[in-house]
Amino acid sequence: MTSHSRHSVTPVTPEALYRPDQVAAMLGRSEWWVKDQARKTLIPYCRVGNSYRFTAEHLAEIVKLLEVRPQVSPPLVAVDPQPARSACPVGPERAAVPQTRLKARPPRRRLRELQTAAVA
């Protein structure tokens, strides 16, 4: 006679749970990184007792999260035969650009000396 519980739970064997150091070795990361990512809930994990544990499904999801997809390059555009004008004009056009002269501010020490002299 077998008894069936109301809830069907898939048993997880201890061999199916990976420790953070094992996961770190598989991912080429440090154990600290794995624990930190789990603590920040950036990667999936199980909490067994007071330690992080990872299943094979967690590892697959972590790898998926770390995956970098190639960027799709934009379609090639025909080159305009007329070159665009430069934002920094060179030659006679340069004179038309107004130029402002930068002025250095006095050191703070000097400002304090002037303020104390004005008060006294």
Main features:
single chain, 120 residues, mainly alpha, Multidrug-efflux Transporter Regulator, Chain: A, Domain 2, two-stranded antiparallel ribbon, 4 helices
Q: What is the name of the CATH topology of the domain at 14-66?
A: Multidrug-efflux Transporter Regulator, Chain: A, Domain 2
Proportion of helical residues:
25-40%
Instruction: Let me know the number of strands.
Output: 2
Count of discrete alpha- or pi-helical segments spanning 4 or more residues = 4
Give the overall shape. flat
Largest sheet: 2 strands, antiparallel
Give the overall average pLDDT: 80
> What structural class do helix, strand and pairing data support?
mainly alpha
Largest sheet strand order: 1-2
The CATH class of the domain at 14-66 is Mainly Alpha
Q: Hey, roughly how much beta strand do the residues contain? A: 5-15%
Please tell me the CATH architecture of the domain at 14-66 by its name. Orthogonal Bundle
- End-to-end Cα distance, whole Å, is 102 Å
Summarize the helix and strand pattern as letters: HHEEHH
Computed Rg: 33 Å
Protein described:
This protein is mainly alpha-helical. It has a domain at 14-66: Multidrug-efflux Transporter Regulator, Chain: A, Domain 2 (Orthogonal Bundle). It has helices at residues 20-27, 31-39, 56-66, 108-119; strands at residues 46-48, 51-53. Strand 1 (46-48) and strand 2 form a beta hairpin. Helix 1 crosses helix 2. The longest helix is centred in the C-terminal third of the chain and has 12 residues, at 108-119. The termini are far apart.
